[in-house]
């Protein structure tokens, strides 16, 4: 019993310290002891264990400006395990390699008209992307801890609680076993026994944008489709896998590609906003250069873009009214493609929301184009950070 309890405490302390190293590096052992509320001796011992197992790296004594003796600093091991993120969009497949410091080590992309292909053809077409990502990790001597697949999908769960793709409305996918398809491709490139996990693009992006936030948030983002996730204690709610873009807000508006009428997508989705200004719907410019063609027109003073943005803001505020009334979030964060629209979207949205509620703050997130990919890769690494001892036991 005593051994089990001791192992439990050691396991918790290892997780706490690894989390602190990931969040605060470079950091000294004395600083870690203060942050963790542990003795310096305990930190030194546990840090030795994390260093021996290739999760933490001792940087040695670096430039020292403070009082007292110079102390060596530690950081996540740059040669430690990595996570791979992978996503399918209407015009490409893309992936990245992320290390324990949260840094993207490698990006890969292949242009592909995924809407004209079957799910199996898309995943097969992604083989060169997956191969290059794995080659990068293995030639750097790094262990791939798993692959996170980000999809703008509606999910169900199987008997074991694992996510199943029910549909990806933007790609026309229905009941696709994406996990088996990806695992098959990994096997084909010789990457055996790799953990494949699925998740919604929006919850993955929300995790990157809102990690560590203490207040309750509603994150609204997405690329092709609008999505939303409730974030409490800095963690996106596990149930946040629904189709926020298909909430009905336009009683007299026409049909949505999903088959229903009046969806939020019809005013705030990328296809609707692009067509309002005569632009083709595409994801590539934003991923490659961070530029969103619709947002460029908006910021150049295009009146059609301004009108479409105001209409989108009203529809978003109406769709948010019910969750805001029920959950009372402190802040609504606009991320993904919506962040690129800036105050032109935020101000009318906040104004309309305030008409109905004393209301949350509305702030614009970073909205980087690869946050979903980064979140997908980090979902794999989070398992190591949450339980390093368990992970070491499984992989040793
Ligand atoms: Zn719809």
Automatic annotation (TrEMBL):
Protein name: Sugar kinase of the NBD/HSP70 family, may contain an N-terminal HTH domain
Similarity remark: Belongs to the ROK (NagC/XylR) family.
Gene3D superfamilies in UniProt: 3.30.420.40, Winged helix-like DNA-binding domain superfamily/Winged helix DNA-binding domain
GO MF annotations, alphabetized: kinase activity
Domain of life: Bacteria
Organism the protein comes from: Amycolatopsis marina
Keywords associated with the record: Kinase, Transferase
InterPro entries linked: ATPase_NBD, ROK, WH-like_DNA-bd_sf, WH_DNA-bd_sf
